[in-house]
Amino acid sequence: MVNPSPLSYIVLFRCRNGYVRTRGSVFRIDEGIYAYVGSCGNHCGARIMRHLAGDVRTKYWHVDYLHDLCDELAVMVLPYGESCIARALLSEYEGIPGFGSSDKREDRTHLFRIRSTSENPMRILPLLRKLIKRKLAGKDL
C-alpha cells in the first residue's frame, strides 16, 4: 500500500570515533549521538527494523555501514519527506557531507551529529521533532 503523504524516520545512533567505509566512500565519524534520516517508502516497519537489527549481513545503504561503529538507540517516524527533514536538521546541526544522500542529489547529507554521548537520547527525539515542525511551519529552510 502506498502512503498518501510522505513518511520518513530518524534513527538515533551512539557512535565511537572512527571511519565508516562504504563501497565507494570513507566518512570520518567523531564520538557522539547522530541522527540518520531515511524515507519510509512502502514498507516503513520493515525498513526501520532492518536499521535497528544491528547485524546487517548484506549492506545496501550507507546507514547499513554505521553498525560497524555505532549502536542504534531510538527511532521516530515523521509525516514529512526526508529532504525536508534533512534540510531542517542541517540548519542546526553538523552534517556528514554526502552520507546517505546519494539518491537525493539536492540534499547535502542525511547523517547529523546531534550531541555528545553523555546526552540522554530520549530527550533528543522531542527536541528534533519540535525543531523540524518549527522549521517546516516557518519555511525558513
Quote the beta fraction: 25-35%
Question: Care to count the β-strands?
Answer: 7
Major sheet? 5 strands, antiparallel
Total of domains: 1
**Average pLDDT level:** 84
The count of helical stretches stands at: 4
Q: For the largest beta sheet, what order do the strands appear in spatially?
A: 5-1-4-7-6
Q: Shape from CA axes? A: globular
Q: Structural class of the secondary structure composition?
A: alpha+beta
Low-confidence stretches: none
**Could you give the distance between the termini?**
31 Å
Rg, alpha carbons? 14 Å
Helicity range of the residues?
A: 25-40%
Oligomer: single chain
Topology as a string of helices (H) and strands (E)? EEEEHHEHEEH
Key terms for this structure?
141 residues; 7 strands; alpha+beta; 28% strand; five-stranded antiparallel sheet; two-stranded antiparallel ribbon
Secondary structure topology:
Elements: E1 8-15, E2 18-21, E3 26-29, E4 32-39, H1 44-53, H2 62-66, E5 70-78, H3 82-90, E6 94-95, E7 111-115, H4 121-138
Antiparallel strand pairs: 1-4, 1-5, 2-3, 4-7, 6-7
Helix pairs in contact: 3-4
Please explain how this structure is put together.
This protein has 141 residues and is of the alpha+beta class. The protein has one domain. The chain is 30% helix and 28% strand. It is built from 4 helices and 7 strands. The protein has helices at 44-53, 62-66, 82-90, 121-138, and strands spanning 8-15, 18-21, 26-29, 32-39, 70-78, 94-95, 111-115. A 5-stranded antiparallel sheet has the order 5-1-4-7-6, with helices on both faces. It has a two-stranded antiparallel ribbon with strand order 2-3. The model has no long low-confidence stretch (mean pLDDT 84).
